[in-house]
Design brief:
The complex is a heterodimer.
Chain A: H1 4-23, H2 55-90, H3 93-108, H4 111-120, H5 128-142, H6 145-159, H7 162-169, H8 174-210, H9 222-228, H10 232-237, H11 243-265
Chain B: H1 3-30, H2 48-60, H3 64-77, H4 90-125, H5 130-133, H6 135-141, H7 145-154, H8 160-184, H9 187-194, H10 199-236, H11 242-252, H12 255-275, H13 280-284
Helix pairs in contact in B: 1-12, 4-8, 4-10, 6-8, 7-8, 7-10, 8-10, 10-11, 10-12, 11-12
Classes of the chains: A mainly alpha, B mainly alpha.
C-alpha cells in the first residue's frame, strides 16, 4: 500500500502533463511577443516566460522529457552494468581485474567533472533533440560503475553457490546458467539499482543544464528552467517562475520514496 | 599482506588512476570538434592560402604522441603547460584557485558533518517520528546543488560554504543515523540504558568512540562527494576556485587546464581512497 501512494502520485503527474499538452493548444517553443512575462490567464494558466512562451506547457514537457530520458538512461545504464558485472564475475582473473579497475576509476572520479567534460566535447551546432538524446545517453554511459560493482560482488557469491556447481556438473553451458539462473537471481538487485539511477539522472541533468551543458533550447528541461531563477528582475515580476523547481523537488521526493519502498520489499 | 605491500599496492593503484585520468582527458579533448581550430583562421587579414597553412600546421602539431610528449615535458618542468584561454602557466592559475577551493572544501565538509552528526544524534534516540524529523534532509537530498546555490543568491543568505555544508549534511545524514541506530542497539548500550545511565554519558563514553573510525572513513569519502558539488557551487556563486576554472576550461576546450584539473581531481580521489582504509564502514551504514 505504501508504495502505491508515490506510484499513483507519479502516474497522476504524468497523466496531468499529458492532459495539459492536449488541452493547451500552443507549442512549447511558440513565442507570443505581446505576452512577455504575462500573469496567469485562462489562456496561459501559469503565465508566460521572458520570451512569451507558455509556462505550463513548458513545465509539462520538461517533466515528461526528464522522466522519459532518465528512465531510458537508467535502463541502459543498468543493462551495461549487468553485462560488465557479469562479464567480470565469469571471466578469467586478468580480465576481471581490468574491468574492475575501469569501473573503480569511473566510480572514483567526480561524476560532474566527467559529465561536464564529455558533454562539452560534443559539437556546438547540435540540434536540441540531439542534445537531449546525447545528455541522457551520456548519463547512461557514465552511470553504470556503482551498479556494476554491486552486480559483480553478488555474481561472485552466486558463482560458488551449490546449485551453480550442480548446473556445471549437469553439463549446462555458462551462457545458459547465466541467462536462466544467475540473471533471475540478480533481479532483486537490478530493480533497486535501476530505480536509484532515475532520480540521480534527473538531478544530474538539472545540474548540467544549470551550467549550460544540458538539453539545448528551445526544448524545455529542468536544468534550462533553473537558469531562469538567475534573473532577479524576472523573479520580482512573477512567483510562477518557482513552479519548475518546486515540481522537480516533488518529483524527486516521489521517486525516492518509491525506490525506498521497492527496496524494502525486495 | 604486509603493511608495505598494502601501501605499495594502493600507491600503484593511485598512479594508474592518474594515468587513466590524464590519458582519458587528452583523448577526449583531442577528438573534440573544434579542438584543432585556430582563431587566426577567422581573421580576414589572412589570405586563403595562409589559412590553409595555419590549419595544416595546427593539425600537424596536434598528433596524440606530440600532445602527450608536450604534456609530460610541461609537467616535468613544473608549469603544467600554458593555458590556451588565459595564456599563462597552468600552475600559476591553479595555485591561487586551489587555496580557495581547498578552504571551501574543508569548511563545507566540516560544517556538513557537524550538522549531520548534531542532528542525527538526537534523532537516532527517538523511538518514533525519526522519519518525520529526517524530512528536511530528504528534502535537501532531492534538491539539485544548482538550485541550492541559486536559492542562496535569491534569498541573500548563506553562501558557498552553507550550500556545500547542506549538500554534505543531506548525503551523510542517513549514514550517520544508521550507524547511530546500530550503535544504540548494541547489547552493552542496552545494558547501560537499563541500569539508568544518562544518554549523553553513553554517547560520550561509548557511542562516539565506537563509531569514530567509521565516521573518519566516511569523512574522507565525503571529499569525493564534495568535489561533485564544487563545480555548480563555484560557477553559480562566482567563487574563483578550481571548479570554476574547470568549467571555463571545458567551455573553451583548454586542454592544458583540463588535463591538470583531471589529474588533480584523480590525485585527491586517490589520496582520499588511501585514507579511507575502512571501507567496511560504508557497508555497515
Amino acid at each position: 500500500m505504501k508504495r502505491l501512494i508515490p506510484a499513483a502520485t507519479l502516474v497522476l503527474l504524468i497523466f496531468g502533463s499529458v492532459l495539459v499538452l492536449q488541452l493547451m493548444k500552443c507549442n512549447y517553443a511558440f513565442q507570443d511577443r505581446d505576452l512577455i512575462m504575462a500573469p496567469p490567464t485562462m489562456q496561459h494558466w501559469t503565465g508566460t516566460d521572458e520570451l512569451g512562451r507558455d509556462r505550463t506547457v513548458r513545465v509539462a514537457v520538461a517533466l515528461l522529457l526528464g522522466l522519459a530520458g532518465a528512465i531510458t538512461a537508467a535502463a541502459i545504464s543498468t543493462v551495461i552494468a549487468a553485462c560488465i558485472g557479469l562479464l567480470a564475475a565469469f571471466s578469467p582473473r586478468p580480465v576481471a581485474s581490468i574491468l574492475n579497475f575501469v569501473s573503480d576509476a569511473f566510480l572514483s572520479l567526480p561524476w560532474i567533472f566527467l559529465l561536464m567534460m564529455v558533454r562539452s566535447l560534443l559539437p556546438l551546432t547540435a540540434s536540441p533533440a540531439d542534445t537531449a538524446a546525447t545528455t541522457f545517453l551520456l548519463l547512461a554511459a557514465l552511470g553504470w560503475p556503482a551498479c556494476a560493482r554491486a552486480i559483480y560482488r553478488n555474481a561472485m557469491v552466486l558463482r560458488s553457490a551449490g546449485w551453480m556447481i550442480q548446473g556445471y556438473a549437469s553439463g549446462l553451458k555458462l551462457g545458459q546458467l547465466v541467462s536462466l539462473h544467475v540473471v533471475p537471481h540478480l533481479r532483486t538487485l537490478l530493480l533497486p539499482q535501476f530505480l536509484i539511477c532515475v532520480p540521480a539522472f534527473i538531478v544530474a541533468e538539472a545540474n548540467l543544464g544549470a551550467l549550460g551543458l544540458g538539453v539545448g533550447e528551445p526544448v524545455p528541461s529542468w536544468g534550462a528552467m533553473l537558469l531562469e531563477l538567475d534573473n532577479s528582475a524576472l523573479l520580482a515580476q512573477s512567483h510562477w517562475i518557482y513552479l519548475p523547481i518546486a515540481l522537480l523537488i516533488v518529483v524527486l521526493l516521489i521517486l525516492e520514496s518509491f525506490t525506498k519502498e521497492i527496496a524494502k520489499d525486495v | 599482506m604486509s603493511f608495505s605491500t598494502t601501501i605499495a599496492r594502493r600507491f600503484g593503484r593511485t598512479m594508474l588512476l592518474l594515468l587513466f585520468a590524464a590519458t582519458g582527458t587528452i583523448l577526449l579533448v583531442r577528438f573534440a570538434p573544434g579542438f584543432l581550430s585556430d582563431s587566426r583562421e577567422m581573421d580576414a587579414k589572412y589570405a586563403q592560402a595562409a589559412r590553409v597553412e595555419i590549419q595544416e600546421e595546427s593539425t600537424r602539431d596536434q598528433s596524440l604522441c606530440l600532445i602527450a610528449t608536450h604534456e609530460v615535458k610541461s609537467w616535468l618542468k613544473g608549469d603544467l603547460g600554458m593555458s590556451r584561454e588565459y595564456n599563462v602557466p597552468v600552475a600559476e592559475l591553479l595555485s591561487g584557485r586551489m587555496r580557495v577551493s581547498a578552504t571551501l572544501l574543508v569548511q563545507g565538509i566540516l560544517s556538513g558533518w557537524l550538522i549531520a552528526v548534531c542532528t542525527a544524534l538526537p534523532i537516532s534516540c527517538l523511538r518514533r517520528g525519526g522519519s518525520l524529523c529526517s524530512l528536511p534532509f530528504t528534502l535537501l537530498l532531492a534538491t539539485p546543488t544548482a538550485a541550492m546555490a541559486t536559492a542562496s543568491i535569491l534569498f541573500e543568505a548563506g553562501g558557498p560554504v552553507l550550500v556545500l555544508s547542506l549538500f554534505i549534511a543531506a548525503r551523510e545524514f542517513k549514514f550517520v543515523r544508521s550507524l547511530l541506530i546500530g550503535a544504540w542497539c548494541s547489547p552493552h548500550l542496552l545494558a547501560g540504558r537499563a541500569v539508568g545511565l544518562r544518554p549523553w554519558a553513553l554517547v560520550r563514553t561509548h557511542i562516539l568512540p565506537d563509531i569514530a573510525p567509521q565516521l573518519c572513513a566516511l569523512m574522507t569519502l565525503s571529499i569525493v562527494t564534495a568535489l561533485e558539488a564544487l563545480v555548480p557551487i563555484e560557477v553559480i556563486l562566482t567563487v574563483p576556485g578550481v571548479g570554476q576554472l574547470a568549467w571555463s576550461a571545458v567551455m573553451n576546450r583548454d586542454l592544458q587546464v583540463m588535463v591538470a584539473v583531471s589529474v588533480l581531481m584523480a590525485c585527491i580521489v586517490g589520496i582520499a581512497g588511501m585514507l579511507s582504509a575502512h571501507t567496511a564502514a560504508l557497508e555497515a551504514a
